[in-house]
Design brief:
Elements lengths: L4 H9 E3 L7 E4 L3 E4 L1 H13 L9 E5 L9 H17 L2 E3 L6 H8 L6 E4 L13 E4 L2 H8 L4 E4 L2 E8 L8 H12 L7 E6 L8 H10 L7 E3 L4 H9 L19 E6 L6 E3 L7 E3 L10 E4 L7 H11 L9 E4 L4 H10 L1 H8 L2 E2 L19 E4 L15 E4 L2 H10 L27 E2 L29 E8 L6 H4 L13 H5 L10 H7 L3 E5 L11 H8 L2 E6 L4 H9 L3 E5 L4 H4 L5 E4 L2 H6 L3 E5 L4 E6 L4 H9 L2 H9 L4
Parallel strand pairs: 3-4, 3-6, 4-5, 6-7, 9-10, 9-12, 10-11, 15-16, 15-18, 16-17, 18-19, 21-22, 22-23, 23-24
Antiparallel strand pairs: 1-2, 2-8, 5-20, 13-14, 21-25, 24-27, 25-26, 26-27
Helix pairs in contact: 2-3, 2-5, 6-7, 9-11, 9-12, 20-21
Bound molecules: alpha-methylisocitric acid (MIC) and iron/sulfur cluster.
Iron/sulfur cluster binds next to loops.
């Protein structure tokens, strides 16, 4: 039988289930990664499991998100993660070493292996031929403990690349083109597998830009084969021994096919406020630019940075524009500093930021009121920049730097001959910001800061579930809306009671107050509820506020899993017109909820309107158990006690 590259890796890691599209399957996880804003919670959960040492081939804890240190909270959490890592067999990447996805690609990713990360952009690892999936911290904690990871066997979409990108057109434009065609919902339960003659023209960092932003399609993950391009990259990273070839069989059958002729792609931009609002850069050409930011896990590789520096060489940023650049890792920054490129950037008037997520998650660099900000990042959800009135566009580094120089959105082809930067044959290797775990962590004491507060745990599901509709939301509500993460809130990721005060406030200012006044209740939403981040805080904060059910037209994958892990019932309208019937503060009841969930159809009675709606839990047997037992942690405890 012939297999796709995706199927080959899944097959080699399959622990449970059959590889039939739509079936629930469980896979073994080789590697895990966490970052600090989801990591504290993940490690608290890992500790609660009572396992001495991680069972994975490699687990890495990165510090890259919460690095402003405006108070002791971040530093305390980082110390906690560093201690836990040392004790339990986890590598620790210190602040300043770079963004988790960039560093993981450089130093740890292995083709053919599986990677689970508590960050939605973990699929960056697909650029090096991994099945790399983003998940909530609890799922990552389970994987660190040697537990399997459950997914729906995805459809495998063949993305056939032909031709070659034109000068000034970048990998970013390829993924923007896919977002233009398929939208932010187009990838749900799919893996995008790249093939075709165009592959060889794309470097590993180019590929990683594409797989990284596959997250914005809602995809389970995206993957490139591991080929001579991968080999050259690993060799240049002094990791040739990690190379294995991996490609689809010639006869492999795909569920869907998308064709992209690279030579036809032009510079693209995602307009405010969604990564799929994609248009030609040339159609935006009179828009004045106030701020340009280059970096993030999508576009902060050495070659991206070198191109930017070469374009800036000898030029000056106009007075009205602020340009800030964050090289993605210590490796990249160090190489730029040693070869002089950093000096060229500084000469142009650019501000150089630390190698971290920074402004991508609103940690500084909030634009001015009503400003236009161009970013090489992956998400431009409203308010994510820290300024609600700002208009954020997502573009390639080429478009970003051309626009920074001209002061208005510019098609880089206007700059004349394109700069070409070859991949280095050797990267600068210096891993002194990566701390190895202890051989034997037994006696090590883990320090906990006062910001670490107990997290809420759901209760067993008994009897009826009832509550008022506390809010009625539209389509594509993001996890940034559910649990905002700006510079003021990110330090409190281990303090759910505090965070809950801000739950859903960007969409509904009084939501926390309403939830508290009514002793909890129900959320009603449109389609693709919970798109974006993997943060399980977007389930934990509602749980803390007493939310029992989210009734929506559809859910984003990771958020739905986080809701179920925390026993908040996700229900999907069978008839989406029923959404219209429900009003704010309607009283809803689900009789004998556990029984109904077990039967796969749940009738939601609207007491206020004297009507009822047929809804579908769309959960597997395992997920039903979690909902009924009060979430994953309770289910695991009950299993241990032999009660399940
Ligand atoms: C993001 O890009 O939204 C984040 C911040 O990296 C999140 C993780 C988090 O919320 O901590 C993600 O993508 O999962
Ligand atoms: Fe960090 Fe932004 Fe990447 Fe999230 S998307 S991991 S915040 S750089």
């Amino acid at each position: 039988m012939a297999f796709t590259a995706t199927q080959k890796i899944i097959k080699a890691h399959l622990v449970k289930g059959e590889m039939i599209t739509g079936n629930e399957i469980a896979i073994r996880i080789d590697q895990t990664l966490t970052q600090d804003s989801t990591g504290t919670m993940a490690y608290l959960q890992f500790e609660a499991m009572g396992i001495d040492k991680v069972q994975t081939k490699k687990s890495v804890a990165y510090i890259d998100h919460n690095i402003l240190q405006t108070g002791p909270e971040n530093a305390d959490d980082h110390l906690y993660i560093q201690n836990v890592a040392k004790k339990h067999g986890i590598y620790f990447s210190k602040t300043g070493n770079g963004i988790c996805h960039q560093v993981h690609l450089e130093r740890f990713g292995v083709p053919g292996q599986t990677l689970l990360g508590s960050d939605s952009h973990t699929p960056t690892g697909g650029g090096i031929g991994m099945i790399a999936i983003g998940a909530g911290g609890l799922d990552v904690a389970v994987a660190m403990g040697g537990g399997e990871y459950y997914i729906t066997m995805p459809k495998v979409v063949k993305v056939e690349l032909t031709g070659k990108l034109s000068p000034w057109v970048a990998a970013k434009d390829i993924i923007l083109e896919l977002l233009r065609r398929l939208t932010v919902k187009g990838g749900v339960n799919r893996v995008f597998e790249y093939t075709g003659a165009g592959l060889k023209t794309l470097s590993v960092p180019d590929r990683a830009t594409i797989t990284n932003m596959g997250a914005e399609l809602g995809a389970t993950t995206s993957i490139f084969p591991s080929d001579e391009v991968t080999h050259a990259f690993l060799k240049a990273q002094d990791r040739e021994k990690d190379y294995v070839e991996l490609k689809a069989d010639d006869e492999a059958v795909y569920d869907e096919v998308v064709e992209i002729d690279l030579s036809k792609i032009e510079p693209l931009a995602a307009c405010p406020h969604s990564p799929d609002k994609v248009v030609l850069v040339s159609s935006l050409k009179d828009i004045k630019v106030d701020q340009v930011l280059i970096g993030s896990c999508t576009n902060s590789s050495y070659v991206d940075m070198m191109k930017v520096s070469k374009i800036l060489l000898g030029k000056t940023i106009p007075d009205e524009v602020s340009l800030a650049i964050a090289p993605g890792s210590k490796q990249v920054l160090n190489m730029l500093s040693k070869n002089g490129a950093l000096g060229d950037m500084i000469d142009s008037g650019a501000r150089i930021l630390e190698s971290a997520c920074g402004p991508c998650i609103g940690m500084g660099q909030a634009p001015a009121t009503n400003a236009v900000s161009l970013r090489t990042f992956n998400r431009n959800f409203k308010g994510r920049s820290g300024t609600v009135s700002a208009s954020v566009y997502i573009v390639s580094p080429e478009v970003a730097v051309a626009s920074a120089l001209m002061g208005y959105i510019t098609d880089p082809r206007e700059l004349g001959e394109a700069v070409v930067v070859p991949m280095p044959e050797k990267f600068l290797i210096n891993d002194n910001l990566i701390i190895s775990p202890a051989e034997n962590g037994e006696g090590l004491v883990v320090k906990r800061g006062p910001n670490i507060k107990p997290f809420p745990i759901a209760k067993e599901l008994v009897g009826n579930v009832e509550g008022k509709v506390l809010t009625k939301l539209g389509d594509n509500i993001t996890t940034d809306d559910i649990m905002p993460s700006n510079a003021k809130l990110l330090p409190f990721r281990s303090n759910i009671p505090y965070l809950a005060e801000f739950c859903l406030t960007p969409s509904d200012e009084n939501f926390p107050t309403k939830a508290k006044e009514n002793g909890g209740g129900i959320i009603v939403a449109g389609s693709n509820y919970g798109q974006g981040s993997s943060r399980e805080h977007a389930a934990l904060a509602p749980l803390f506020l007493g939310i029992t059910v989210v009734l929506a037209k559809s859910f984003a994958r990771i958020h739905k899993a986080n809701l179920i892990n925390n026993a908040i019932i996700p229900l999907v309208f069978e008839n989406t017109n029923d959404y219209e019937d429900i009003s704010f503060m309607d009283e809803l009841v689900i009789e004998d909820a556990a029984d109904q969930i077990a039967k796969d159809v749940v009738i939601v009675k609207n007491i206020t309107k004297n009507t009822e709606y047929k809804t579908l839990p769309e959960v597997t047997q395992r997920e039903k158990e979690m909902l009924i037992h009060g979430g994953l942690i309770n289910l695991m405890k009950n299993k241990k006690k032999g009660e399940v």
